[in-house]
Write a structure and sequence with these properties.
The chain is of the alpha+beta class. Helix content is about 35%, strand content about 20%. It is built from three helices and eight strands. The strands form four sheets. Strands 1-2 form a two-stranded antiparallel sheet. A two-stranded antiparallel ribbon has the order 3-4. Strand 1 and strand 2 form a beta hairpin. Helix 1 packs antiparallel against helix 2. It is globular.
């Protein structure tokens, strides 16, 4: 139930971020895609989107942590959309790996200190090179 609540919140946040001429869709599970026009402020907009997505979600009185890894790919009308999604997926996995820098989180239930968490500062989204749509 909390998964549905956080996924719904993320979808709503993406929909609010998306400009009227852009398209946002849920691919499935917790994966979303936005077809956005390239503009000089897109990188700043993507950083703001990640910050917005990562705001906690309250579900049944409990604050849930939300994380996000973004991947982007530029396409033109001549590009294959499936290939662009593949490139964006690769960038997302690269961003996720960069953000997975482990930080000590405190003692484990057994008294050890093996627990880790993702770093607090968001990694900036990365952009593949090409031209046209982002």
């Amino acid at each position: 139930m909390a998964y549905v609540s956080s996924t719904t919140a993320v979808g709503q946040r993406i929909a609010l971020w998306t400009a009227p001429e852009e398209v946002a869709a849920r691919l499935g599970g917790d994966e979303f895609v936005v077809l956005a026009r390239r503009d000089p402020h897109l990188q700043d907009r993507l950083t703001a989107l990640r910050t917005t997505i990562c705001a906690p979600v309250t579900h049944q009185g409990v604050s849930l942590t939300v994380g996000a890894s973004l991947g982007t790919a530029r396409v033109t009308r001549s590009h294959d959309l499936s290939a662009a999604l593949g490139r964006a997926d690769q960038k997302m996995y690269e961003a996720r790996a960069e953000a997975a820098e482990a930080v000590p989180r405190g003692p484990t239930p057994t008294g050890g200190s093996g627990a880790t968490t993702r770093r607090a500062s968001p990694a900036p989204p990365s952009t593949a090179s090409s031209s046209g749509w982002a």
